[in-house]
Structure formats: C-alpha cells, structure tokens
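Hey team,

Sharing the Interleukin-1 receptor-associated kinase 4 run so nobody has to redo it. Sequence (344 residues) first:
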Amino acid sequence: MFLSCLGMCCPKPTTNTNSSTRQFPTVIEELCHQFSLADLKKATNNFDLNRVIGSGIFSEVYKGYLQHNGASAYTVAIKRFNDQGCEAFNKEIELLCQLRHPRCVSLLGFCSYEKEKILVYEYMFNGSLDKHLQDAELSWKKRLEICIGVASGLHYLHTGAKRSIFHCVLGPSKILLDDHMEPKLAGFCVSVQGSRFKSKQKQINVEHAIGSWIYLATEYIMDVTITDKWDVFSFGLVLLVVVCRRTYYLLTLTEKELLENPVEEKIDPIIKGKIAPDCWQVFVDVMANCLKYEPDERPTMGEVEVQLQLALSMQEQADITNSNCDYTLLSKTTIPMEVKQNVM
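Structure output:
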C-alpha cells in the first residue's frame, strides 16, 4: 500500500515530541488532520484506562474530549495502536481517507510520532449494535432500519469507491450507532481492497485468518479467498443475530436439531408478535439468499438493500391496517445446512 511504501510505519526522528510532523502523502495531508500527541494525551487524561471504551488485537479505543480554537470540548473516539498494529494503522487510515458515506464512521484525523500510531474518529454515542441486541431494547422496525443502513454502507464499499472495499470482519460489534440510532460501519483495520469498480472482480487470497469464526464465509474457510460475497454472507448472519435471541446456540446444533428448531421459535421475545408475516417472508428470503453456499448464488448488497426496503414498507403498511399490531408467523424457517457445516 502506498502509505507503507512511504515509510509511514517508521517515521524519522524529530525534535518535536508532541506533534505529528512527519511528512505524509499530499492526499492524506489534505483529507486528514494531524493531531499533536500532546493534544491527544490531554483529551484522554494521558490515556487513562478508565477512558477505554473498546479494545482489539491491535489497539485500544478511548473516549476523548478535544477543543478547537477555544470552543467547547467535543467528544471523539481515539484509537491507539500497539506495537503490532502498525500495518492495521496504515490500512485503516488509507481506506478511511477514501470513504465519504453517512453509513461509514468518519475519520477526523491521526497522529504518528515514533511508536505512537493513533486515529481519531467521530464519537458514536450509542455504542455498538451487539450491546443493544444483548439488552433486547430495540423494536423490530428499528432493527430493520439498522439492517437497511448497514446494507447501504456495504453497497457503497463494494461499488462507491474507485476500488471495491471488502469489510471482512462485519458483525454486530462493528456496527456503531450514533446519537440518532443511525448505524455506521467501523473496524476497517483488516479490510481488503479489490479490483477497480466496474472491472471484473478477482478472488483475493490471504495468508492468515481474519475475522470472527462465526462470520467467516464458506469460501474463505475452504480455500482462504475473499470477494465481495464474503461480506454478503457475513451480513446474512448479522440478519440472523438481529432477530434471534440465541444465535450462537443455533449455529452449534446438530443437523436434526436444526431441522426441529425453526428460527421463528428463537425470535427475541421483545419483537415476537411485532413482525408482519409479509415483511418476515421477505426478510428471511434475503437472509437465506445471503447464506447460500456458493458465492455466485448470493445477491449483491444493492439487491439486498432494495429487498430490505421492501420488507420495511410492508411492515409499515401492515402496521397502518393492523391497529392491534400483533402478528402470528406461520412459516417455519430453518438455517441452511451448508451454513451449519462450514461454521463448525
């Protein structure tokens, strides 16, 4: 990648210990603000562990408070990479500087001085989707709206930039919610760039495992290849998580148990009875198609987005005509066997 080629991982020593004075490619300088290390230390109370709001293999994320031109402090998320996170830092800043979409988290700037590699993002006040699913506090309509937003973001990644971008680690923990409960994609440190848009997409082979095992696409498990259909498969599992209260349990059942345990029986109690049958049928059809064993049989994210919009309109229309807002689902939807066989 072009940032690595320019030595971003190994900046030359400088006498200014509090600033990002390293020279970066012009496009990065124009699109991405360089914060001083002193400002980021101040914003996080010298990286106080009590400010940590998330962590991963390569980094920790802090809640910080920055000031600009004497104005009131504004809240940001500050990701500080560890010694093993240099490549992830390079990849994420390269990708995020290219992205301009309301469903992708915004990068506000960075700091790179000696061993310090830090990225600064907009702060997402409502945290990650997985927390809200665990707390079982989201209505069915809001869950559906969040899924549509995520599909829109993935569609943009696959088709909206000069080169396709494959997220690769999509899951509820990588879907953040802003103060209006609108979703934004995060976690691009292991994402992969594909071919230029409108050119024929090629399979990309990777040498090491990435992502959570439960969200890995079948083709990656079989031959370690990546295409845009990896994200489609992962999104299908996100749809399953959104409606089921015990998804991890479902994915570890035997084949006989799967056939005897339709998804309808595992729907989160808070939304049970709130899903219109027509909406549900479209939703589960989308989920099943996303989870197809063969990548070429899965839909594009653009097609998924359109179908989920249709499901939402069906729900809204049903709610208008059904004053009781209480529905019964008569269908029996089981998880495709190929999904079970390849996530075990």
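The domain at 2-122 is CATH 3.30.200.20 (Phosphorylase Kinase; domain 1).

Ping me if you want the raw files.
A.
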